[in-house]
């Protein structure tokens, strides 16, 4: 199991808390307890943003607003992206890109630091976890389990 999968397993165990069976319930309880500690440790490993990153974000936001299309009330027009996020509809893309390049240059070391931190954290998440889960045997599982259920707890099955 990779470190990133700890979060998924912890969420799955919460969904499975109501399933009966002494051995299975005990394994879920113990694993939730253990994974809670791991999640806390992993979250502590996330590096706080560079102190100047907030300044960069504020300036970037103002730049987007400055170059965004405006509606009849002079408010910036937002676009809804297919992935569910929002962004500003930029009116003068060439000028915006020029200003954005200047802004990125001004904060080059800050952006590099943030990129390096993200890369390091992602590499950690992709490493094998050292968590030793409480395992359950196939006979300790409920009779009416589904393939989806198996997939969610595959790391717990002996």
Poorly predicted regions: none
Give the C-alpha Rg: 23 Å
| Count of strand segments | 2
Q: How do the helices and strands follow one another from N- to C-terminus?
A: HHHEEHHH
Strand content of the residues, in percent?
under 5%
How many domains, in number, for the residues? 2
Instruction: Report the sheet with the most strands, covering strand number, pairing sense and barrel closure.
Output: 2 strands, antiparallel
Q: On the 0-100 scale, what is the average pLDDT?
A: 90
**Alpha-carbon distance between the two ends:** 14 Å
Percent of residues in helices comes to 55-70%
What is the count of helical runs? Answer: 6
Label the overall shape.
elongated
Strand order of the largest sheet: 1-2
Q: How would you classify the helix and strand content by structural class? A: mainly alpha
Quick structural gist:
This protein has 158 residues and is mainly α. The chain has 2 domains: 5-47 and 132-156, no CATH class; 53-106, no CATH class.
Could you give the topology of this structure?
Layout: H1 5-15, H2 22-45, H3 53-67, E1 78-80, E2 86-88, H4 93-106, H5 108-125, H6 147-153
Antiparallel strand pairs: 1-2
Q: Any overview of this molecule?
A:
There is one protein chain. This protein is mainly α and 158 residues long. The chain folds into 2 domains: 5-47 and 132-156, no CATH class; 53-106, no CATH class. The protein is 56% helix and 4% strand. It has 6 helices and 2 strands; from the N terminus they run αααββααα. It has helices spanning 5-15, 22-45, 53-67, 93-106, 108-125, 147-153, and strands at 78-80, 86-88. Strands 1-2 form a two-stranded antiparallel sheet. A hairpin with a 5-residue loop joins strand 1 (78-80) and strand 2 (86-88). Helix 3 (53-67) packs antiparallel against helix 4 (93-106). It is elongated.
